[in-house]
Design brief:
Layout lengths: L1 H27 L11 H13 L8 E5 L2 E8 L2 H12 L6 E8 L3 H44 L2 H7 L3 H26 L3 H21 L1 H16 L7 E4 L2 E8 L3 E5 L5 E5 H6 L2 E3 L5 E11 L4 H13 L11 E7 L3 E11 L5 H18 L43 H11 L8 H12 L14
Parallel strand pairs: 2-3
Antiparallel strand pairs: 1-2, 4-5, 4-8, 5-6, 6-7, 9-11, 10-11
Helix pairs in contact: 4-6, 5-6, 10-11, 11-12
Length: 455
């Protein structure tokens, strides 16, 4: 019995803490009424006071019953209705909010705020009018000063001797002054945010335009470089890649050539800047060369001496450096001899001089008995050869001298050779005259200068 009593007491002591914890847990889940609970009228008045401070919510109707707030009426936007619900839910004592606000779509309600807003803008403009006038005066003053400075061409041409670069600098400075005037005017109006947006948009627009007009910009930059380096001068005889002609002018977009046929040829400056340019006019002395063949049985060294002597007798061939000749190739039936001589292009035309030199060397070789070989064909017949190849009547046989060489040309041919030496080799000035005439008519568009530096 005593043992049973001890066990009972032990169980009782263990049960008491558990029972106390259960009671405390139950008491924690109970919602007790506040000692002082706001009445529905107090809640409605508090919400009304808040809405009266917000113009777009002042017409909203409020009903409160047992802490449940019902909002009704109309607002201009759905955002205003959502804002009203949010504000009402934050008031102490509100259990939930029923939002029954409708959107006001009447014309009069929409037009009136817009007119009031425009009237507010008008009032702001009137207030800012003196400042706007001041900003406009400052803008015009700075812009006009920049225009006057950049319009003074002699000043910029003195700073930059190249006309094209001077024009580029003038345009750049004009843009700088215009941007400076705009920045100062917007700063006076406290519109720096607008200025930042404008500059950002201008940068993006400039980048897009740059990609769109990439070829034009490349031509423009090439024009600057060509006008500075000037690889040719007006009326120079040049070959630009495969295009040959005389230079008329260099513009900001293209190089204008007059071809040897008298036609105008426009080459984009970007292509000219990257092209291989051959200038025949830079060096007044020019070498002409040609090849002549003699019979394989002739003495090639004697033939060279004969040709050189004929070239030296020509008055337009320069004595220093003198003509030269050498054996270029030994073939099966001929020996090819290379001849070259120098002329002064200022007094002798290249094409005329070369033609006369070739004729003089050829005639001299023929006069000395050197045979200029003709094509030789070997024919093989299985049967007897035709009668025409057996010396039949009507066959044409070239007479030869006893030593195997052809007879020398007649006296008339020798007189013709002397006449060729006296032929006119003066340069043709027709293209030069046409180019000078066009340059006089369009001198303002030319970026080349007669006395400008040449690379």
């Amino acid at each position: 019995m005593r043992n049973f009593s001890i066990i009972f007491i032990f169980l009782a002591l263990a049960w008491l803490p558990i029972h106390a914890q259960e009671e405390s847990a139950v008491s924690a889940g109970v919602i007790e009424a506040a000692e002082e609970t706001a009445s529905d009228e107090d809640i409605r008045q508090r919400i009304r006071d808040i809405f009266n401070q917000i113009e777009e919510l002042s017409s909203v109707q409020i009903i409160v019953d047992a802490g449940v707030v019902t909002l009704s009426g109309q607002t201009l936007t759905s955002d205003a209705a959502a804002r009203a619900e949010e504000l009402a839910a934050r008031v102490e004592g509100v259990v939930t909010v029923e939002n029954q606000i409708e959107r006001d779509v009447s014309v009069s309600t929409r037009v009136t705020p817009a007119l009031e807003q425009l009237q507010g803008y008008r009032d702001d403009v009137i207030k800012l009018l003196p400042l706007i006038i001041l900003a406009l005066v400052v803008f015009l003053t700075i812009a006009s000063f920049g225009w006057l400075i950049t319009a003074w061409k002699p000043f910029w041409q003195k700073i930059t001797p190249n006309a094209f670069v001077a024009e580029l600098v003038r345009s750049t400075m004009r843009t700088v002054f215009l941007l400076l005037a705009l920045v100062v005017a917007l700063s006076l109006l406290d519109a720096t945010a607008l200025l930042s947006a404008f500059l950002g948009a201008a940068g993006v627009l400039g980048l897009a335009i740059g990609f769109a007009v990439r070829d034009t910009i490349e031509n423009y930059i090439s024009s600057v470089m060509l006008s500075l380096r000037q690889p040719f001068r007006p009326n120079d005889h040049v070959v630009i890649d495969e295009h040959e002609g005389h230079v008329i002018r260099l513009t900001s977009r293209a190089t204008i050539l007059m071809t040897l046929q008298g036609n105008h040829l426009r080459i984009p400056n970007a292509s000219v800047f990257k092209a291989i340019i051959l200038n025949y006019t830079r060096n007044p002395e020019r070498r002409l060369d040609f090849e002549l063949g003699v019979d394989a049985e002739d003495d090639p060294l004697a033939a060279i001496q004969t040709g050189l002597a004929a070239l030296e007798d020509l008055p337009f061939i320069l004595k220093e450096p003198g003509p030269l000749g050498h054996i270029r190739q030994v073939g099966d039936s001929n020996i090819v001899i290379f001849f070259a001589a120098w002329i002064d292009q200022r007094t002798a035309d290249y094409a005329k001089s070369r033609s006369i030199a070739v004729a003089a060397a050829k005639n001299a070789l023929e006069e000395e008995g050197f045979a200029l070989p003709e094509p030789i064909y070997r024919l093989r017949f299985d049967q007897a050869a035709p009668a025409i190849f057996q010396g039949a009547e009507g066959a044409s046989i070239t007479p030869q001298s006893s030593d195997g060489k052809r007879d020398s040309p007649s006296k008339q041919s020798r007189q013709k050779s002397k006449h060729d030496q006296m032929a006119d080799v003066t340069p043709d000035d027709h293209l030069a005259e046409k180019i000078d005439e066009e340059r006089r008519e369009n001198i303002e568009e030319d970026l080349l200068k007669e006395d400008g530096p040449v690379e």
